[in-house]
Write a structure and sequence with these properties.
Order of helices and strands: HHHHHHHHHHHHHH
Distance between the termini: 15 Å
Number of strands: 0
Largest sheet: none
Shape: globular
Structural class: mainly alpha
Strand content: under 5%
Length: 351
């Protein structure tokens, strides 16, 4: 490692340490809120009586959601390299595994790094693919949010979150249109205004937009964009069905849009820094969402706990199996991916 990289590492280590500590603290706070004033006897009764058949079906939909995510990558990459859906499927599981065992959602960087290594594409393009995928997720959440407004009166905090989401979603659409219209030169128009921002804000925004546009270059036509976005939408439909099946497993007869509401609230909540896997935040957000439908706190916590544990078990087990299959050392990959993305953010390829 060169002296320059060493300096960068030393500067970033304390900042990263504070982020990890803050995430753990936030998780503890939310976990405390989730179990505050809980009747543990009623909670255990809810968990014990959950229908195994519905839970197994929920597990099937977890696999379906991740397969649709792999299909999204297929649609994005089919024009630039021979896509391998099976590789995408395994890499996404490994990346989610990384999110569940490493802090700071490092799994997102890990799966971009693995995508670059296995598909022989530039690192910047692989990272851009993940960022572009998240942009499509924002639009999907916006669509669900608008649909929910037809059925549920929202509190002010949720309306504000929806407006922020709508602004980001509209910005995403504008960038897609401008990038397509001007042949990928959007960054040229905003580079000077970004340089005038105080501190490192402009440089950070420049990097994030550059990553996003690197992924956007993969889209060669509106048809390709809508095919990829359709896969994102179907992936979220599968996650909605995961929640719906767990609600059914608890013996509740709630409408489907209750599960949609849970997914939307969860996505808002999981934007908050937390420990790996969102422990505590996940459970509290499920309680918060289901309270809207009059579900007792113990029952909601039981649903949230079981749903979360199912994700932990399936994703960690399958992520570990696929990591072994692909001869991937999670510790080594996490270090190398961080070295490429965090310590040396300007790196374009991996040797």
């Amino acid at each position: 490692m060169t002296p320059v990289n060493k300096t960068v590492t030393e500067k970033k280590a304390p900042k990263t340490g504070w982020k990890i500590a803050l995430g753990i603290l936030i998780s503890i706070v939310f976990l405390g809120l989730a179990i505050y004033n809980i009747d543990f006897v009623k909670l255990w009764k809810t968990v014990k009586q959950m229908n195994v058949g519905w839970l197994l079906l929920s597990g099937v939909f977890i696999f379906a959601a991740i397969y649709m995510r792999a299909l999204l990558w297929y649609q994005l990459l089919k024009k630039c390299c021979p896509p391998h859906i099976w590789n995408f499927f395994r890499i996404i599981f490994i990346g989610y595994f990384g999110n569940f065992v490493f802090p700071l959602k490092l799994g997102e960087v890990i799966r971009a790094w693995l995508l670059s290594k296995t598909e022989n594409i530039p690192t910047s393009t692989a990272i851009g693919t993940v960022v572009l995928e998240r942009g499509m997720d924002l639009i999907a959440m916006l669509i669900f949010f608008i649909l929910l407004m037809c059925f549920i009166p929202f509190e002010n905090w949720l309306k504000l979150s929806g407006l922020i989401l709508a602004g980001v979603g509209m910005g995403f659409f504008v960038v897609v249109i401008l990038n397509y219209r001007y042949g990928g030169h959007v960054l040229d128009f905003i580079e000077k205004p970004l340089q005038k921002l105080p501190g490192n804000i402009g440089h950070w925004l420049h990097r994030q937009i550059d990553k996003f546009l690197a992924g956007l270059k993969l889209i060669k036509s509106p048809q390709q964009f809508f095919q990829a976005f359709g896969c994102s939408l179907l992936s979220w439909v599968a996650w909605i069905l995961v929640i719906h099946c767990c609600i059914k497993a608890a013996g509740l007869d709630l409408p489907m849009f209750a599960a949609v509401f849970v997914i939307v609230v969860l996505n808002f909540g999981l934007m908050i820094p937390s420990s790996p896997g969102g422990l505590g935040v996940f459970e509290f957000m499920v309680i918060l969402a289901l309270a809207k439908f009059g579900v007792a706190k113990e029952v909601a916590l039981g649903i949230g706990f079981v749903t979360h544990m199912m994700q932990y078990i399936i994703i960690i087990l399958m992520g570990w199996i696929f990591a072994v299959q692909m001869n991937v050392s999670m510790l080594k990959v996490s270090k190398e991916s961080v070295d490429t993305e965090v310590i040396n953010p300007e790196a374009k390829t991996i040797g």
